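Bench log, entry 3. Co-assembly request; chain sequences pasted below exactly as received.
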Amino acid sequence: MRAAPRTPDDRATAPESDGSALAETDAGRVPVPPPAAGRGDRAPGPARRRRRDLAPLWLMAPAGVVLVAITLAPIVFLVFTSFTDYDQRTLFTGAYEGVGLAQYAALLQDGDFWASLVRTVLFTAAMVAGSVVIGMAVSHLLTRLDRGVRFLVTVVLILAWAMPNVASSLVWNWLFQPGYGVVNWLLTQLRVFGDMTQTDWTQSPALAYTVIWLLIVWQAVPFIALTLNAAETQVPGEHQEAARLDGAGELRVYREVTLTFLKPTLLLVTILSIIWDYNVFNQIWLVSRGGPDGATSTLGVFTYQTAFVGFEVGQGAAISVVTTLLLLGLTAVYIRNLLRSGEDL
Amino acid sequence: MTTPSTAAPPAAPTGTLPVRAPASRSRRRRRGRAVANSLALVFCVVWLFPVYWMVNTAFKPRSEVLSATPRFWPSEPTVSNFTTAVTQSGFLQNLLNSVVVVGATLVVAVVLGIFAAAAVSRFRFRGRRAIMVVILAVQMLPATALLIPMFVVFNTTGLLGSYVALVLAYVATVLPFSIWVMRGFFVAIPVEVEEAARIDGASTWQVLVRILFPLVAPGVIATSIFAFIAAWNDYLFAYTFMQDQSRYTLPVWLASFSNPNTGTDFGGQMAASLLFSLPVVIFFLIIQRNLVSGMSAGAVKG
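Structure output for the full assembly:
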């Protein structure tokens, strides 16, 4: 071995200089692997090391301790809080009592909670459907464009995606501002809806939902379109060409060939969208504050208002536990699909 | 796949589907491309409009911002909105708060994350899969599940409103995906590199520090950017924890711009939004290629 002219230091620097850009793209694709991701050529190396090694223990320990202290412990504490009557008074005196399942019993009888749950499910469905359908269309569109146009669309998508949602919510409020909002003005110019310049979008539930839906979909489409497009470019062209030669129309080629290959990625993207849209808070809070009269108060907003506006922290914790449990089911489905699509944990 | 196939072999008619002549197909495809390009341009106009309107408003003088007929171009471009935003009370202090909190979060998350990522990618040990599942699952929690218990604990310990409280909250949200993203970079390094060093007598520590860490440097950069974006953009934790205006971070400062009793200054608000978004947009463009990898662990939410 000593005969080898290279030292460990040489090896450390050599691959870095010639292959870093490539390694970066490879790694970039890992978690949402296209159907034909070539991961099989890698030797299952770490498994070869059989001897008991304490290294992973001390490597994992610092992060492990911190994660337990600041994520798992708070969740345990959340569950604990949901069994108490922690409220505004407790913030000052520190006194609270265990009330068993009373918070949950109260929750089940609370019409506002059920309304909020139904609202969340329906609104999530509407946002996910909108962003996935538009995302699929844009992803497909991207495959049939000239280079320059393709680049332009990608940049536009990234701009929309990159806007911090606090900023985009403010922009939205300005676009839809009664009196000076440019969208109000544009809609008035259409002469279909009458004079809309003074329309206050947040004063009507339907309009408030429309505005928030547009905002969420606007920012969700880029991720979906770019992820799907990355997978779509991996679809072997021969299959589509063969279908075309057999006389299948473009729509049929897409439905029966492309979509078959896209299915695993599409599934992951859809589940992620459901989880994120279900958790949306900032945009609703900054555009409508859950109003008018609680009409857009989804579970996130409802929890926040209960815990931090009414300061019924115990009750808020109970809602949060229920929300988390509902979400956990979805998360399980997500992780199972991630594993099935070839991700090795 | 999309290049017109001039030399396409004559297709054997299969089934009942009619066969079209190759010439008409290629003409059809060229027309299809023109349609696709124009559709794409329409899409760009629609999707870019909110960004354009933000920039447009930010450079307008007040009289043009508040005009009944919107102006699609500032006739007298001005930077006065930016000066208003930057000189507004608290901007510098709040910017400093953001920088301190985000910086501390980055350092903690990357240092802890790189060791943990090495552990879960270069070793097989009992409970490794469980750790990865927990890391993914934590990422999907609703924000209130961490917000409520942290608020209660920080309130009783007197940490509410301090940098420490916010840094802890951000590490909790950022560390899981940091481990996930860096793990992807570790996995991409062939084992042979590591084994060669071991044969040469390097210890585990030497392999890590002298061989693996330099190789995952791009991953550290990508992770730092993801972590920066997540912490920089956070509104909910800062809004709940930092009740004193001098302790606001920039997102809270930005949202409080729309304070109704001072009368909303839309020009200033758009200028502030632009300034606040700019670093994020730049970073997004830099790590464009890695965006998809971070997403599946919830690094940058859609």
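Residues 258 and 265 of chain B are 7 Å apart (CA to CA). Residues 22-58 of chain B form the longest helix (37 residues).
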